Amino acid sequence: MYNTKAYAAASATSPLSLTQIGRRAPTEHDVQMEILFCGICHSDVHSVRNEWSNFMSTTYPIVPGHEIVGRVTQVGSAVTKYKPGDLAAIGCMVDSDGICPNCKAGFEQFCSNMILTYNSPDKHLGGVTYGGYSDNIVVDERFALRVPDNLDLAGVAPLLCAGITTYSPLRHWGVTQGKKVGVVGLGGLGHMGVKFAHAFGADVVVFTTSPNKKEDALRLGADEVVVSRNADEMQQHAGSFDFILDTVSAKHDINAYLNLLRPDGNVTLVGAPPNPLEIPAFSLIMGRRSLSGSIIGGIAETQEMLDFCGEHNITADVEVIPIQKVNEAYERLLNSDVKYRFVIDMASLKTE
User: Which residues make beta-bridge pairs with 40?
Assistant: First the structure.
C-alpha cells in the first residue's frame, strides 16, 4: 500500500478538503494511473451529502469521482492491454464477480457483486473504495478503458458517466437514421443525449422549460426545440416519437411525454426524481407504449461508446476548474450554473 493526495468529505455537512488516502500496490492484473482529469457528476454531490441514504448510505470519509481520465504509470506482470504512457479511463465500476450471467453477457453494471469506483467495499484494503478526486488510482485492467488520442481529454472525462448513461439506452432502443427522438432536459446528461442522437442520424427534438436554451440546443445538434410549458407546442408532436430520453431529475409530468409516443414508442428515464412519478395506465395501454429506466453500460459498451466518440469527434462541453474550487462547483451545479459539466484539472492537486 502507498499513500496519495486526495480531496475528501469527512461528513455529510463537511466541505471537500485535502487529505491522504491509501491505494493498493498494483497486483499482476492491475493498472496504475496518474489521474489527469476527473469530472464532477451530480451523483458525487448526492453521495457526499448522503442524500441517497435510503438506497446507498455513504461511508465517510468519501473521495468522489467516477469520470476519470489518466495516463498509465505502471502495469502488473500479467497485464496485456496497457503499457506505461498509455491514456486510459475509468468509469463508475472498478470490479464485478465476472462469473454471473450478467457479467458473462457484458452487463457488469447489473452484477449483484459490482464494485463502484467509490463508496463500495474495498476487497483489497478493507473499508471502501476511493474515487478520482485524487492523484492516482489502481484498477484491474478489465475495468480500464482505452481513450481515443484525438479527443480533448477534459471533454472525455464526463463520457465515462454522462456519456455512457445516454449512449446505452439510445443504442438499446434502436435509435438510428430516420427515427424521431426526444431529449427531455438540456443539462449534463441531456446535452450528451442530443449529441449522440444527432450522430446516430435521428431527427432530434429537445424539450426544455427554458426558452433561452433554444440556441444552444440547436448548436448541439437538435433539429427542433419545444418549450414543454407550452401546451400548443407539445400538442403538435402528439403520437409522433419513436423514443424519448428523459434526463430530468426534478419532479415533472411524465404523462406529457408518454402521450407524445407513437405506437410501440418508449420513454426511458435516466434522471432520478426524488419522488415517485404518477403514470396513468391508459397512457401506456393505448398504443402499447412503454416506460423504462437505464443506468450506465457494461465495459464493452462503454469502450464502444468511447470509440464512437473518437470516430465522430464527440466530447462533453465542459468548464475546467482547479480542485481548490470543487466546493464552489458543487453549489453552482445545484443552481444549474454550468455548461454542461465541471471537470477538475487534477494537476492542480500537485500544488497542494
Answer: 342
* Beta carbons of 1 and 10 less than 8 angstroms apart: no
Total domain count for the chain?
2
Is the same domain home to 171 and 116? no
pTM (global) more than 0.90: yes
Last residue of a domain, one of 244, 272, 293: 293
CA nearest to 233, candidates 215, 256, 255 = 256
User: pLDDT tens, 25-68?
Assistant: 999 999 999 999 999 999 999 999 999 888 889 999 999 999 99
Of the residues 274, 293, 312, the one at which a domain ends: 293
**The cell 496518474 sits on which residue?**
34
Which residue range forms the structural domain that includes residue 238?
162-293
pLDDT tens track for 140-155? 999 999 999 999 999 9
191's enclosing H/E stretch is helix 188-199
Q: Is the dihedral of CA 133, 136, 140, 144 positive or negative?
A: positive
Three cell numbers at 201? 442520424
